[in-house]
Amino acid sequence: MPSIGNIPGAYRLFFYSFDCGEPRHVHVQRDKLVCKFWLDPVCLGKNAGFPPKELNAIRKLIQRHLPRILEAWDEHCG
Description:
Blueprint: E1 12-14, E2 25-30, E3 33-39, E4 42-48, H1 52-64, H2 66-77
């Protein structure tokens, strides 16, 4: 599962290789909490434990780094 580098903060952003058949999205993890955001448009797809306020912060992080995240998706999934 490739991680996206050069995005500062407490979160690990990553993709699963078997997800390449789905629309572009990113998984976000901190400790044992995980969520999934769709990228076009940026919106929550799935949440496993993050509180709403933190999900909002994650969404803003994704929007701020969206070009890098989309580039990483395209590099990995073609």
